[in-house]
Amino acid sequence: MAAVARLLRQGLPVTPAHAEAVLLDLRGVVARAVDPANPSSRTTALDGTMRGLLARFPDARYARAARALFGLPPAAPGLTLTARRDLAAEQAGHEVHHFRKRVEPKLIEKVAWELLADADRFTHTPMIAPRLAPVIVRKPVAADPFAWELTEHEEQLARLWSALYAAHAELLAVERLVSIGANRLDLIHAAVTAAWRWAAARAEVIGYSTAYSPDSDTSVDDLLALAGWTPELTGAQASRLTEAAAGGASREQFVHALHNETGLGSTWVDRLLGSDAMPITDSNGSPQ
After folding, report:
1. pLDDT 10s digits, 18-38
2. Which pLDDT does position 10 carry in this prediction?
């Protein structure tokens, strides 16, 4: 909390001069850094972590106030702490003195706890995505069975993370569209795309786990959870979606394979969008 309070004095963006080791050493920050051994890289990662945390601040009443306090919109860049406090108090609907004495410490505490919760999630993450480094010289694979096996494993690992990140992107797109109140057809289209990407990721996870870590304590569900929150499905429903997306199926092929599964489609969409949604068909009854 003390480190977060000192970070507040300068506000965002985080600079090396104001980023304390207790924050730079958080597991979530280290895991996000391009070069974990470089303090500047971890400072950039801390800045991104803070921005993401404040963008999804869990207390809806004080979310805008918390962002303004740390120098994010509705605050303008370069404001002093005093000016940011004034704006944050206005956003929270409090008198400035009351806000500073009663509300601000609670917001700092909440930010600190969210940083710790983020670090805890990374501590318990079953796998960390492999880091990519620039390659400027071609490195052919040696004509050797060991080299082939090692390269194939790296290839499958890359496909696994590619699928997980693709699913993560589509699930984020759904949350963004829900938040901005997008029209129903756009929401349903995004939800179906997320189902396709999630199912493709599940197929990749199952394939990788079967081939390379059959005895691992990490389950398929553990790895899929890295992509983001999804509606709870029965084993049969999850298997049906996976079957439709397996083998590199396109979105169109995925939807076509499920054209008789309107109940499954509606279940996914209803739960993902958090409301009653129309069936995933057009006026002719064809799937969208």
Report:
1. 899 999 999 999 988 988 899
2. 93
d(CA 182, CA 195): 18
287 forms beta bridges with: 281
Q: Can you give the pLDDT at residue 116? A: 96
- How far is the C-alpha of 60 from the C-alpha of 74, rounded, in Å? 15
Q: With b meaning 16 or more CB within 10 Å and e meaning fewer, what string describes 250-279?
A: eeeebbebbeebeebbbbbbeebbeeebee
Domain extent listing, the chain: 2-123, 151-273
Backbone dihedral region for residue 181 (phi beyond 0: left; psi -120 to 50: alpha; all else: beta): left
* pLDDT for position 275: 59
* Confidence at residue 126, expressed as pLDDT on a 0 to 100 scale: 67
Determine the Cα–Cα distance for residues 255 and 199; give it in Å rounded to an integer.
Answer: 12
Is residue 77 within 8 A of residue 71, CB to CB? The reply is: yes
d(CA 163, CA 141): 24
Q: Are 75 and 67 in contact (CB under 8 A)?
A: yes
SS3 228: coil
Give me the pLDDT at residue 130, please.
78
User: In angstroms, rounded to a whole number, what is the distance separating the alpha carbons of residues 36 and 133?
Assistant: 13
Contact indicator for 15, 36 with CB cutoff of 8 Å: no
> In which region does residue 85 sit, left (phi positive, over 0), alpha (psi from -120 to 50) or beta (all else)?
alpha
Q: Which of 32, 28, 9 has its CA nearest to residue 19?
A: 9
In the chain, which residues have pLDDT < 50?
276-288
